[in-house]
Amino acid sequence: MKVQYAIGMNKLDHAKRVQIINLLVEGNSMRATARIADVAFNTVAKLFIDTARMCADHQDRTFRNLTCKKLQLDEIWSFVYAKQKNVPDEKRGQAGDVWTWVAIDADSKLVPSWRIGSRDARTACEFVDDLASRLAHRVQITADGHKPYLQAIEGAFGSNVDFAQLVKLYGDTVEGQKRYSPPVCTGAVKTVVMGNPDACCISTSYVERQNLTMRMSIRRFTRLTNAFSKKIENHALSVALHYMHYNFVRIHKTLRVTPAMAAGVSDHVWTIDEIVGLVEEAEAQSK
How far apart are CA 77 and CA 97, in angstroms? Predict the structure, then answer.
């Protein structure tokens, strides 16, 4: 999807912009970033929006004809403005529970596609359709037991996919841990849905670990704080900025390169300077 930009940053120098974006991608809130960088909150907000839009557009254009072989899919919960039960009537449809659907390549750890929306069949179809449009050949996909995946993957791939679902089994929750601690996983059931997936590679471990990375890196996903997004647009932009940093800048500890390099879509480790350069290049072209 093409994004229209409204460029017009109050003359921040390049070094200050780099500092601000670096603070944001490392998990700081916008108000904390404004205090540390000694700039106005609105300055941080505008730079964040302009940069995140550029990041979304760059990844949309770059992640095409990918040679991924094994993909894992999952969804992570958050909320905008208020939790679903507390959303006022005038905010219905604009606030409440929000799910981020994520796909990760098990080999390169690249995240080629994500989708912000509800945890319903419509969003599942939009997410998987977008993922399918970015792939060059047949892949193996593992998802959890969420039923909308069945329709979504069949609709996007037809029979040209090896698809399995992995459903984890959990024990009883210990009293006192019901709210904040997950129950103990006691096993998992692997179900082949379509094609001939490699049983050894039916797993959702990498995408579940990616959920933790998101919660640790995106301040808006932190639980039990007031750092949650107040607008769905800014929530989506925060995810785009995070994945630009994750895919292109952050060296994966196991691979020793960035996911984008491992996937063959980049030939070097990006820097925050280069990300800021996307905004500055757009500014120059708009003059």
Answer: 7
